[in-house]
Amino acid sequence: MSAGLDKALSTAQLNGLPLRNRLLKAATFEGKSPGGVPSDDLVEFHRRLGEGGIGMTTLAYCGAEADGRVFEKMLYMHEGIHRELAALIATVKATGAAVSGQLAHCGNFSKNREFQGRRPLGPSAQFSPIGLSAGMPIAGAMSAQDMNTLVNNYATAASFMREVGFDAIEIHFGHGYALSQFISPLTNRRSDEYGGSLNNRMRLPLRVLTAVREAVGDSFPLLGKISMADGKRGGIRPADAVEVAALLDAGGIDAIIPSTGTSSMNPMLMFRGQSMAVGLLEQTQNPLARLGLRMMGSRLFREYPYQPLYLLEDAQRVRDRVQCAVAYIGGCCNAEDIDRVMTAGFDFIQLGRALIYDPDMPKNLAAKVDYRNGCSHCNRCTALIEAPGGIRCVELLPQG
Ligand SMILES: Cc1cc2nc3c(=O)[nH]c(=O)nc-3n(C[C@H](O)[C@H](O)[C@H](O)COP(=O)(O)O)c2cc1C
Fold first, then answer.
1. Structural domain harbouring 11
2. Distance from the alpha carbon of residue 200 to the mean position of ligand 1, in angstroms
3. In a domain, 168, yes or no
4. Which atom of ligand 1 is nearest to the CA of 381?
5. Strand bridging mode 348-351 / 75-76
6. Pocket (CB within 6 angstroms of ligand 1)
7. In a domain, 94, yes or no
8. What angle do CA 168, 390, 44 make, to 5 degrees?
9. Over the stretch 66-81, which tens digit does the pLDDT of each residue have?
10. What is the pTM of this model?
11. What is the per-residue pLDDT across 296-324, written as a single tens digit (0 to 9) for each?
């Protein structure tokens, strides 16, 4: 076995949390929580990953508050789901895997019809194409009071997550969600101390990090996922993201996950491979939506050819800049990819689509040194987020 693969499969610690290996399941909102309640199917999805040998799984989406959800069927952290969430976590932990939760807020865009006459809030007022279909085309700008409430809600959600049994929390600072909206100059056009320079734009994300840290204590593992690029002119670039990572490191994060792209502006930058429009066309019955996808699909979902380890070069700049742990993410599928990432000095690897294709990947890597994962990066799993039953690998299971 290569030294890198050996390292990946060996035990590790994250701020004192013992992990049986360095392979972590990436956050992939599964769409398996109808009514905002974890379903048996969601439990089984994560239990299966635990059985397959993953070091730690990540439950996404864990909304910081009810209004922080994009869809009604996303979880938000509150007592009403304590029993179901505690049972899910206990079931997964019984397999030997640790359980992290991705703590997130959608900020200025939402399709959640429970907003009922109110509108989503972000750093600055703006048009929200995603909200259009749910009758929420305009987002408002947060007041100082709104920002205080947001910070408090993150802290309350984090306390709940610790209490309910999560081993770690991954704060979402990327992909165009609320904290990333503050970080990006494209969505943050504020003229107060929360807008302008990068230090100002990081003020609210760092307040959230501090509040979450105070809520969970020094010995609780906190990860932070960032975007290294917005994928739109005038947005965050890798050089800015290196400084974002450094500020989070200084602010007390335990591990950075340098991802890229935005769900709202340029999702394909995050995934690479076949356009999501293909899968969405397969799922969408509404004739108007189909027409829109045919006309706009190539603009909304730009084509970026898939390459193994497509974020390695930029992630290496983050690795070189910070003291905290770094979890590599993006196009890591085969034994040789894992070897390269580990040899390059990363502490952990987050795996998304490869584990949706093969939940036994960690066990299979241990059994077969030249393991190759069969995910074709068709990205049709992503189109199932809103479908009844949620995501699955369409190449493995019959369509239904
Ligand atoms: C179906 C699906 C859902 C996803 N949902 C989330 C999410 O809720 N939060 C997040 O940060 N990233 C999400 N992602 C992005 C992944 O975490 C990851 O960044 C991306 O898939 C690239 O990693 P990979 O090449 O290992 O798949 C999702 C990806 C997929 C395929």
1. 3-268+305-384
2. 28
3. yes
4. 1
5. unpaired
6. 26-29, 60-61, 102, 172, 175, 225, 259, 270-271, 329-332, 351-354, 381-382, 385, 391
7. yes
8. 55
9. 999 999 999 999 999 9
10. 0.97
11. 888 888 889 999 999 999 999 999 999 99
